[in-house]
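Dissemination and training. As part of the outreach component of the grant, students in the summer workshop were shown how a complex can be specified as a set of sequence lines and then modelled as a single object. The example used during the hands-on session is reproduced here so that future cohorts can follow it. Participants entered these lines:
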Amino acid sequence: MRNKKLVNYSKYGYLFSIPFILTFLTFTLYPILFTFWIGFTDLTGAGNTNWHFIMSEEAVGGPKPLFDNFVAVLGNGTFQKAFKNTVLIWTLNFIPQMAFALLFTAWFTDRRSKVKGQGIFKILFYMPNIITAATIAILFNVLFGYPKGAVNDIILGLAKAFGVKKDLMLSSPNDWKIAVAYDFNNNGTALKLIVAFVQFYQWYGYTMVNLIAGVIGISPEIFEAAEIDGANRVQTFFKVTLPCIRQILLFVLVTSLIGGLNMFDVPQLYAGEKKANGAVLTLNMFVRSQGLDNRYLYNKAAAASVIMFIVIVILSSILFYVLRDKDEAKLKKLRKQELKALKKGM
Amino acid sequence: MADNAIKESSIKKNETGLKVVIYIVSVIFAIMTLFPFVIMFTNSFRSTFEIQQSTLGMVSAHPFQNLAKNWNEITNKEFHPLIGFKNSFIISTLSTILNVYFSSLTAYAISAYEWKLRDAFNNMIVGIMMVPGTVTTIGFVQIVYKLGLSNKLFLFIIPAIASPMTVFFMRQYLQASLSMEIVQSARIDGAGEFRIFNQIVVPLMKPAIATQAIFGYVASWNNLFMPLILLTETEKKTIPVMVKLLNGDIYRREYGAIYLGLLVTVLPLIVVYAFLSRFIVEGVALGGVKS
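and obtained this result:
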């Protein structure tokens, strides 16, 4: 018995972490460092094995300043457009996504009016999130098709029902149809709105389920106390529920931010890089198109992805800072001061 | 109960009013969710000509003939759903097994043992959760090209061993549910550490493993960005990479075939979801991130 107690178990901590660490080093850290490095080289062209550090004498076109690739990417009009598009589409999707997720969370977790059948609603709302984004993108593309597609058929049906005739001069019924139909997929603004909508469609259920899980985890006594104190629904939600799920809000915000800035599947398959003058070109699509598609500007693609990385780190840190537990931070500070005082006293 | 105390009629009226609003909005969202799928389903049984007349038409006179025709149309070209399913199945199944097993092991290493670099390691895992996938892409692709490894499925399986997000969830779960007394008594009975993990800790983690497995499987099944770059041979393509073909010029305006191709990729997911949805949505799944 005594021998057992003397066994040092700490080595198992290291041992059991080895598979994770080895895989992480090989398949994540090494490629990341390699990406950073490529951003500082002249690596372009498929199958190029003869490439150099950008400041060296052998670099293509002579030595260049250290951050040449980064400056080139930041000054690239297409990159700037991709950046603007990504932020715009993310915002257009994120605000309604959060608003509706919070609204449904408030409704479905309300203790006073138990909503019947909410299980089915939750299951339905979450469903688009598990379906392949590529499939959803193409499905919506066909639905918004021109001149024939479900949405245009609905518009046509409504136009007929209300007797709207857009162009009376058109003689044949087919012409009339085309005059009413709208070519969504070739209009920049429409494309942005649709892609934002598809993102919303796929993610509001996910956000809602996360938030509901957080609310379920709150101790019921807190709500009872709020009720006894006479707080109404709205007050309870904003003053009790939301502060209690701060951790989950942070998780949802950060994952949505990272997912949003990495947006790729839907805009790529819905419209592609060039449709309507690059109306839905996102940062990830820019990286891919620089690195592939017969361009093979690997150094520029690497620089662009490093810039994305830096933007995400900055924005995540801001979120962490804003949503940090202020009381806990204060307590920690106080404790530190007390310790210092104690030490001085001694 | 407290609810019975509220008896004033004005409050009750408000209550029903609110409920009506809740139901109307929920039903609108439910219709919005289902509409695309219903259109996809009905149009898979219609010919391209019928669809061009109207997308919203319901039943065709020869639904099954149309279905067969649409099926021939898609499979005669480059879209081979069965190959896609096979590859997606191999990648998703193996990567999910590796993902949950090694994430549990890593989480156990963090929560059950005291070791010097533990806190540093734990902080590092939280840190790398924030790293976006894109920043690995260019480097990863270059390494793969250099080693001549494109079109190898293992590229999407082995990396699952290091999934910081899953480790994070597993650790949260272990901290709440693992009692070191069980581990201690197993040690006294003479069980080795690795055996304790496999025979005691893994069964204890079943709920967490089940939910993380679902999420891992779906994420792996739907992954598009890297496979699109690295899986270029038809024989190696996964379902999302295959789906991309439906958008290309080869199926231009063959609407019946496009709808059927989409349906084929969605059907297995919906069947699986029908069985697992309660589990996902009940919130057990995400219990790990409780405040």
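Residues 284-291 of chain B have pLDDT under 50 and may be disordered. Students were then asked to discuss how this feature might be tested experimentally.
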